[in-house]
Amino acid sequence: MSAVAVTDQAELQISPLSAHIGAEIGGVDLTRPLDPKQIAAIRAALLKWRVVFFREQFLSHEQHVAFSAQFGELTVGHPVFGHVEGHPQIYSIAKFRQATRFEGQPLLRPWTGWHTDVTAAVNPPFASILRGVTIPPYGGDTQWTNLVAAYDKLSEPLRRFVDGLRGVHRFAAPQGVQGTASFASAVEQHTLVSEHPLVRVHPETGERALYVSPGFLKQISGVTPRESQLLLELLWEHVTRPEFTVRFKWEPGSIAFWDNRTTAHLAPTDIFDLEFDRQLYRTTLVGDVPVGPDGRASVSLQGSPVGAAAAVALN
Length: 315
Known about the structure:
Elements: E1 2-5, E2 11-16, E3 23-26, H1 36-49, E4 51-54, H2 61-69, E5 91-94, E6 102-103, E7 114-115, E8 127-134, E9 142-146, H3 147-152, H4 156-162, E10 166-170, E11 178-179, H5 181-189, E12 193-197, E13 199-201, E14 208-210, E15 217-220, H6 225-239, E16 245-248, E17 255-259, E18 263-266, E19 279-285, E20 299-302, H7 308-314
Parallel strand pairs: 3-4
Antiparallel strand pairs: 1-2, 2-3, 4-17, 5-19, 6-11, 7-18, 8-17, 8-19, 9-16, 9-18, 10-12, 10-15, 12-20, 13-14
């Protein structure tokens, strides 16, 4: 365990969980306003470990929003699927939420379900903050993968090749299934389609990350459909290799805070084989427009930026 001193009276204990990603942070009470040194230390840990976790933080919706706002501007709960009534910045991650209601059997592959949040938007959220409330006694773990480590582990010729590629991201039901009527209606009313670089340069660290969200990236621009399929499957298989990942076991009061610019994550499906309920709540922070190694920014093909300030800046 390493400890980072933040005040004369307290320390943050930062405990890494795997070689490439994930750390637990202790020694802080998130129900209260943080001092500037604590905010800086948590942000530094986030940049280094990509996703950080806190235990026994029993926040209300209001406290969740207040904690999140110390790190950036909040978005609406979800630009397509709405928010918790009375709390416009909170999105409910329920066991049977609207976004996971599909009809049919999806085509299951090693990367099925992995995604980076809301990459269909031209400015996907910079970070997501997920709070566990009702947690099953077993099952329901979430996994994250480090997209910077995945990029670094590509061969040098392949890195050079993907540095110049771009891809189209959109909301759609997984291959092999249809969304329910409510899912289809929500997507139709709030359509988001954007073209992003396949390699994103991190705006704070300058690192390069494979920006290839399996759940949203539908095709590589400028290549044939077969070339796109083979390249994407190669990259999706690569970014979900176990050595790049961390698996988190939730408890009531657990919080996960991840950098959406350098990670993808996998929501659990084993909960549907259990009788237990599961309820979490998420906030997201307004992000910038991704930029590739060639300096080209992402472009919106349909829909608006996420976040009021972001929309003004882009217009």
